[in-house]
């Protein structure tokens, strides 16, 4: 398991009171997913409704990482809130497309775009696309 | 301490009447208040103090006045009622103020104390001698004295005493008893009793309580108002059953030689002090006669058998306890004032830690000033010397001054008289004794029983703990080592035989653990260790060792091993868990299923479980012909691993089979399956690809839920099918799935697989996919070979389980 040498790094900034921007770096898989989950749970606890996940530093993501994203999505969708994925690497983008998550969870080029999307979501709960 | 005897003034000499001494040194007895008697502890101390005054100069010259300073401190302790440390401070302070040397000042203190006593003694004597009829009493005493001194035997003394001194006092008879070294009394002389009576009472064996014996054991004059009241037997009792009696011990230099017994015909009222004094003086007169009294017959062996002091010193050296040989120390008047420590043996340990040489040769009260105190050691020595009656006491508290601090020591004491000397033994509960006691407690606490077995004599010694270890009364016979097997569990016989062989045959230390079966039915786990003891010829003659009850330890080990068992059980359970999961998967999806037999279609499946137990996952496949004759092909992967993933997989797989019977298309099936996954399974999400092959039209309709798209191998090309839209199962309550459709041609091969086949962390999915496509492209002849090859050359590094379903159109 070479992944043990690549611990996940998660940096949290707050562009606004109800928005958490998490910049993730490292392999997002079964070994590291709980780390991201802990950060997300903490921010949820502090009342954030919008989660912007910058995955530009994640070269690999497996189903565990996927499940974390789906879980926070389920948590915020009724608030109403939103989850945005920012600048995924091609491999992660591929996974998002493969699993169909990108159908429901919007993928943005950068944080500003994601913020703008989040503002729109704030007014009306996002319906899951299909 | 010096052993020289500088001339000194005896304590009471200045108050002694002139002329021949009738009562040397005892004038104060009659009237002095109790506690100031020279024979009382304080009186002894005072006499010692007085005598020491005479020694001051020489002591000073030797610059060794420590004893005097100590004594002065002792006096201050008594006078000021303070502790020794405070007394020492007080002494130093006073010394400074008086501008004297410490020694000089100490002597001053002692003198001051002594002078007080001397004054009291003088007063008492003057009171006694100036009594009204002291004149006539003095005359009588002179007469009796001259008679007694003229007489050469006790009989004559008795006659003279009765005639000259006692009849005027109303007495009718007198008996002079000699105290023999063996504790018996012999009637040395009598007057006023019939010859027959005197013969009958010629001898009183030791320990027979008579009037005379009372005087001896009490060491002071016993005045009995009426003989009848005492109930004591004595000479001439029938003559004057209600008459009064006096039993007065008589001795010289602290040693009692005999008893003077005087009989009155009528009850005797308490006598005035003058009479008491006279009787005491008369008793003293007898002492000189009795001192030289020799037994008439065979009993006159005393001087011969009694060891002289040298022999006693040898004896003391042979003893294993500290021993002191004491000889009486009398003043110039012959009065016993102290005992000189003539010798201490090699085992001697001073409680105050002084070297032996400092104690040896010193006087008892000087070396141990506190011996006169509450411990009464001095009094006991004095009494033993006087009566010859040995004294033994266990756990007697002795107080010794150690650096001015009185330290109480507990000791077993033995005092006995040997000829003219006294042997004092003490066994201090010292370090060794405490260690022995500690060891005993440790053995008890450690449940250790010691034993020693003499193989020649068969003699076996057990300590008390061993008996209780064996559950046998201490009175029972110990169990010899040879019989050990009979007391042990049968299964331990071999271990014990090995133990005995090592010990007795090879003569090496050995140990063994066995179960001891006690007579009370209790089984104890015992460890025995033993070592052989060889004699000078190298022969084994003694075996000694110890048994230890290790039951508690044993049960700890048992508990530990039970825990280990439990752990193993848990591991086994986990193992079974894994096997169960595997069996579940195998039951549902046999790893090598018999290929589905279809016209124009080959179907092959492979399932490869993860190698790591924990990773047994939720991959599934299915290939089944539906009632519509269409073929349902499916590959799925439940997120996560273990039994939960596996059960979810079963739910989804069976649900899909059931749903497929409706005839719905793959998009609709997955939509329903998503609902099932979202609401009905505990697992989070799953991915799946679902296809329906129509064998009549050779068409394939398919949809995917977050899963890798199937790969089509056509000719030398291998391409993944387009990525139709479809989110993974279970993530959202509702989802819709795009369908794809394609026409399959002859020899087309379609591969559906789970990501265990391609997933690699170190390269992109594109890379992995191209590798898969490259492998798939070089299609071997048969579908089965193709699938095997894919598994074999998979470059996956995640050790995930893997499913492959392949169909080939023929």
Automatic annotation (TrEMBL), chain A:
InterPro entries named in the record: Anti-sigma_ant (IPR003658), STAS_dom (IPR002645), STAS_dom_sf (IPR036513)
CDD domains reported for this sequence: STAS_anti-anti-sigma_factors
Organism domain of life: Bacteria
Residues in STAS domain copies: 18-118
Family, per entry: Belongs to the anti-sigma-factor antagonist family.
Record-linked PANTHER family: ANTI-SIGMA FACTOR ANTAGONIST TM_1081-RELATED (PTHR33495:SF2), ANTI-SIGMA FACTOR ANTAGONIST TM_1081-RELATED-RELATED (PTHR33495)
Name used for this protein in its record: Anti-sigma factor antagonist
